[in-house]
Amino acid sequence: MADTGDVNVGSIIRFNNELMQIMEWQHRTPGNLRAFYQGKMRNVLNGKQLEHRFRSGETVELVRVEYKMMQFIYVEGEFAVVMDNENFEQVHVPMALFGDAAQFLKEGMEVKVSFEGDNVILAEAPTFVVCEITYTEPGLKGDTATNTLKPATLDSGAKVNVPLFCNEGDLVKVDTRTASYVERVKK
Fold first, then answer.
1. Is the separation of the CB atoms in 72 and 102 below 8 Å?
2. Among 24, 93, 140, 148, who pairs with 40 as Cys (CB 3.0-4.6 Å)?
3. What is the pTM assigned to this prediction?
């Protein structure tokens, strides 16, 4: 058991018999009242958010989480099949754990998977991916003066907004957290 001073943003704790990931964690000392920790947490399984006050020095159960970099192979129904590169063991990860970044997954991509024992509790796609534009309206020469964007379909099937100078066949770097264009990449 740990106390509230050992908890950080990103830590996973067991709270009311549920796994919660700490999103915000602040130590507060209001005037002549006792100090406390204000925590904003997200349920790992269903994504619900919760705020709670913890007394300073209160014991909390930190969950031991093991992170592994695994290779994404393919999608099978509601699951992504990933492979451990060390022992070639395949694991089925629910696609919902990837969130909106699931639309950018490609075969052979390295993903970060978190385990509590043998149970998968979190999955993250890479922060940035390079994709090829498969369809967009043609760009015109000289359309770089303004910050205007147009819709484009990528090779992974995702749709993002790109600048007017991007054309079909161009490689673009995309932020998977916000599903937004970052930059054009040279081939």
1. no
2. 24
3. 0.75
